[in-house]
Amino acid sequence: LGGEFDNLFLLLGTNQNGKALLSCYISKGLVTSKNLDAGKIIRELGKYIQGGGGGQPFFATAGGKNPDGLSEALSKGKDYIF
User: Fold this and answer.
1) Topology (CATH level 3) of domain 9-80
2) What region, left, alpha or beta, does residue 18 occupy, with left being phi > 0 and alpha being psi -120 to 50 degrees?
3) DSSP per residue over 48-81, as a string?
4) Whole-angstrom distance, CA of residue 26 vs CA of residue 47
5) pLDDT tens, position by position, 22-53
């Protein structure tokens, strides 16, 4: 999808076997033009799922032990695009 859309911000969250997982993808165009960093964003959102993570400026993942925090993490993710 990143090759098709120059302004893609994708944040996904799931509860897998009682553990929370977050993934963030940001198109390289947005990384450059808006100075966004998926690694920094995912580390910040990982706090809501009692976990941590990291990655590259355009793609990062996090895992945590609190799937109940997924809704808040995804909601806070909107702050980065508005």
Assistant:
1) Diaminopimelate Epimerase; Chain A, domain 1 (3.10.310)
2) left
3) GGTEEEEE-SSEEEEEES-GGGHHHHHHHHGGGT
4) 20
5) 999 999 999 999 999 999 999 999 999 999 99
